[in-house]
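INFO  loader      accepted 1 record
INFO  loader      residues=119
INFO  predictor   begin
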Amino acid sequence: VQVVESGGGSVQAGGSLRLSCTASKATASMAWFRQAPGKEREPVAAMRDRRESYADSVKGRFTVSRDTAKFALYLQMSSLKPEDTAMYYCAARAGYPRDPLSPDDYLYWGQGTLVNVSS
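INFO  predictor   done
INFO  writer      dumping tokens
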């Protein structure tokens, strides 16, 4: 399964961006993770069927959604902060993860799309 992200860019604090991810075939679960320079990869949001999960750091600001017909996952990011600056990765897997926000539970990964939020 190939996974491709798009939609990253540069934005000022308080602004919005929408990330898109497309898989080459249907997958049961998809998620967004991010990694800032010098930091470990961390979860952002995930969707298992229609169930959404969010990291505490993005709750109320980010919204994840899916279009299963297009094998797509989206991340609407609002009220962006400089600490949201990171490479954002989309991940997918067949079946259902034990922990939808654990990167270890995903097999297929994209190359990432860079989000830069300036103050």
